[in-house]
Amino acid sequence: MENLYEAIVNGLYDQGWYIAENFISDEFRKELLHEQQEILVHGQFRHAGIGKGEAFRIRPEIRSDKVFWLDPINLTELQEVYWDKMEALRREINQRCFLGLRSFEAHFSMYPPGSFYLRHLDQFQNVKYRVVTVILYLNDSWSKEDGGALRMYLPMGDGNEEIMDVYPEGGKLVVFMSGEIPHEVLTTNKSRISITGWLRDIEY
Ligand code: OGA
Ligand code: MN
């Protein structure tokens, strides 16, 4: 039987994306959510921006989430567990897909009620080192009425796109090719929590 990591890599290889419904245990999810909320009450989240380097801008009309970047040389115990899982995934992807993934970056995200992120690709215009996007949702519960779906525009062979809405249910991991799958976050009606990371083809 193929394990979860193999299933993710196969999905990525065959179709450019994969969704693992229960990537982490509910216990670990709650711990991460709790830690995220601690960081939040201490005011350490910042308005997210777009672009890299000199092109960086805070543009709330494009994205209105708040983020807290994980510091790879200063991870908490819990963040370390998450990081190790992403490292395992990185090695598994490299074995099968030869994408030459060499490093990882990630931030906690919080979308307050009323916030969104318009359609985009996860590669910057000036630098394209983000190769694979991994999003892990931490929310306690989610229903359609809460909004906030991740809308993925899946490229079809014929040049058309298929729309797929993914709800940010806790424990779910979404993996996709950063430069190939446009996506957006529809307006959320309640606070929406996740960790978003990118496997990169550059060194730290
Ligand atoms: C991003 C992003 C999607 C999500 O942070 O670039 O597209 O579902 N996030 O949180
Ligand atoms: Mn994105």
Computed structural class: alpha+beta
What is the CATH C level class, in words?
A: Mainly Beta
Number of domains: 1
* Helix-strand topology string: HEHEEHEEEEEEEE
| Range of strand content | 25-35%
CATH fold title: Jelly Rolls
Rg over CA atoms? 16 Å
Number of helices: 3
Largest sheet: 7 strands, antiparallel
The CATH architecture term is: Sandwich
What binds here, in terms of ligands, is: N-oxalylglycine, manganese (II) ion
Which strand order does the major sheet show? 1-9-6-11-4-3-2
Shape verdict: globular
Low-confidence stretches: none
Helix coverage percent: 10-25%
The strand count comes to 11
Q: What would the average pLDDT be, to the nearest integer?
A: 95
CATH superfamily heading: q2cbj1_9rhob like domain
How far is the first residue's CA from the last residue's CA?
35 Å
What topology does this entry show?
Blueprint (H helix, E strand, L loop, with lengths): L3 H12 L1 E4 L5 H16 L4 E2 L18 E4 L7 H21 L5 E9 L5 E4 L9 E8 L12 E6 L5 E6 L6 E5 L5 E3 L6 E9 L4
Antiparallel strand pairs: 1-9, 2-3, 3-4, 4-11, 5-10, 6-9, 6-11, 7-8, 7-10
Helix pairs in contact: 1-3
The structure holds N-oxalylglycine and manganese (II) ion (MN).
The site of N-oxalylglycine has 9 residues, from strand 10 and strand 11.
